[in-house]
């Protein structure tokens, strides 16, 4: 390589620059062919699609970046000699032309690297959005991916602007001071929104509930989750109204998820029978009712307990499992209807609250 460079250096400056640039241009097409037929072919055989997405997205940008590097290398090698050959031209100073050519090379390389990194980041975003976010039930990660695109784009533009401004020695210190003060003011004004967005990200990774889950909040809000957004979560209650709860509030309070770890539900009943009732018979009749109901799961097994001597009745508690919490109201209705019918057939009385008043006559 050193020998080739030495031979090129011996050529006239313009000729050497042209030959070296031609070499880099031709080599860039070889790089593009290698990118397409070798790297992408290897990526297709891997378990993930991330590498293939990156190689496909950056094929053209890698070629342009290679040419930009070649231009800077060629100009650094021959630029000074070329300028010396035009030293007699006095229309514009040689120093000015050389300085502008250096600027062109810097901008060419900076922008091409920026585009290469931009294409890479967007390929990663596409992979996350199509191969990760769409496979989850929540829409929060889709919305985060959408917002992340805009944030990453803004960051890239700001960084590129800072690099170019530093290269041109632009007085940007006052501008950045103003931007810093403005950012602080914006952060203070939008602190609630920012808190909700951060809480939304926490909900995404912590996953205390998913869309479709039935949850109950500490303040009594109860319903099914229909949407998890960046700023808030929507809960559909049983009266068909939507509660829009900020994510920061959800992150700060206790949440009962009736769907987790699965949609099975343990239903509890409490029933009072009259004093004097045959409790063995009561438990047997209830057991037959639960056994005959096809919607009541046999495993885990149901249970019946005589739990209390109440003021006006003997209290019986029983629990059983159902396969889907959505059917709770229907199964409770069926169970209560069957209990009333069977108790009336068996002569088991379900009392109402009453008190006996004894008046003692004075002697």
Helix amount, in percent? 55-70%
Strand content: 5-15%
Give the overall average pLDDT.
Answer: 79
Q: How would you sum up the global shape?
A: elongated
Q: Number of folding domains?
A: 3
Strand order of the largest sheet: 4-3-2-1-5
Low-confidence residue ranges: 7-11
Number of strands: 8
Which structural class do you get from the secondary structure elements?
alpha+beta
Rg estimate, integer Å: 38 Å
Number of helices: 10
Q: What is the N-to-C order of secondary-structure elements (H for helix, E for strand)?
A: HHHHHHHEEEEHEEHEEH
Give the biggest beta sheet: 5 strands, antiparallel
Separation of the first and last Cα atoms: 131 Å
Structural overview:
- The chain is an alpha+beta fold.
- It folds into 3 domains: 2-135, no CATH class; 209-257, Roll (SH3 type barrels); 265-346, Alpha-Beta Plaits (2-Layer Sandwich).
- 60% of the residues lie in helices and 13% in strands.
- The strands form 2 sheets. Strands 4-3-2-1-5 form a 5-stranded antiparallel beta sheet.
- Strand 7 and strand 8 (314-322) form a beta hairpin.
- The longest helix is centred in the first third of the chain and has 39 residues, at 94-132.
- Residues 7-11 have low confidence and may be disordered.
């Amino acid at each position: 390589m050193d020998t080739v460079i030495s031979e090129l250096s011996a050529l006239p400056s313009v000729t050497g620059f042209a030959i070296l640039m031609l070499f880099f241009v031709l080599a860039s097409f070889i790089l593009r062919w290698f990118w397409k037929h070798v790297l992408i072919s290897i990526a297709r055989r891997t378990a993930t699609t991330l590498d293939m997405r990156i190689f496909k997205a950056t094929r053209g940008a890698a070629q342009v970046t290679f040419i930009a590097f070649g231009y800077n290398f060629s100009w650094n090698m021959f630029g000074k000699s070329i300028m010396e050959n035009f030293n007699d031209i006095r229309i514009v100073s040689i120093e000015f032309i050389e300085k502008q050519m250096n600027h062109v090379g810097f901008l060419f390389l900076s922008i091409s690297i920026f585009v290469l990194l931009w294409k890479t980041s967007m390929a990663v975003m596409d992979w996350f959005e199509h191969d990760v976010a769409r496979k989850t039930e929540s829409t929060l990660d889709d919305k985060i991916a959408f917002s992340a695109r805009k944030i990453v784009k803004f960051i890239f533009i700001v960084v590129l602007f800072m690099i170019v401004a530093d290269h041109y020695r632009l007085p940007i210190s006052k501008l950045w001071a103003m931007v810093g003060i403005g950012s602080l003011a914006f952060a203070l004004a939008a602190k609630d929104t920012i808190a909700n967005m951060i809480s939304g990200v926490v909900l995404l990774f912590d996953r205390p509930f998913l869309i479709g889950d039935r949850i109950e909040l500490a303040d009594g809000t109860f319903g099914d989750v229909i949407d998890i957004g960046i700023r808030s979560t929507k809960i559909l209650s049983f009266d068909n109204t939507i509660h829009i709860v900020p994510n920061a509030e959800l992150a700060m309070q206790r949440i009962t998820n009736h769907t987790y770890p699965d949609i099975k539900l343990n239903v509890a009943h409490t029933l009072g029978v009259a004093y004097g009732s045959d409790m063995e018979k009561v438990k047997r009749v209830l057991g037959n009712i639960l056994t005959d109901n096809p919607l009541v799961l046999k495993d885990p097994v149901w249970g019946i307990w005589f739990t209390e001597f109440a003021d006006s009745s003997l209290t019986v508690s029983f629990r059983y499992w159902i396969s889907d919490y959505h059917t709770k109201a229907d199964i409770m209705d069926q169970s209560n209807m069957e209990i009333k019918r069977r108790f009336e057939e068996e002569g088991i009385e379900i009392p109402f609250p009453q008190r006996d008043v004894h008046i003692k006559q004075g002697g």
